[in-house]
């Protein structure tokens, strides 16, 4: 969208009303990346700060590793929803 504005492919008209760039996002677009960041960070912390026994450390690493893997899978599965397509100029798709 910024490139289209810069190149002049889209002209801003103040009488059009609200901006077409503002789109309401679902809760998952903010929550899932934060959950993945926290889970991955806790997995690294679990590796660096070992527990009393190796089984305790392994349990923490497996739990946080699986939490970050599941969250990453959900984000990748819904990848098209997380990436914004240009909204200002709609060009025809060439086959």
TrEMBL record:
The chain crosses the membrane at residues 29-51, 57-77. Keywords: Membrane, Transmembrane, Transmembrane helix. This is Phosphatidylinositide phosphatase SAC1-A. The gene is SACM1LA_2.
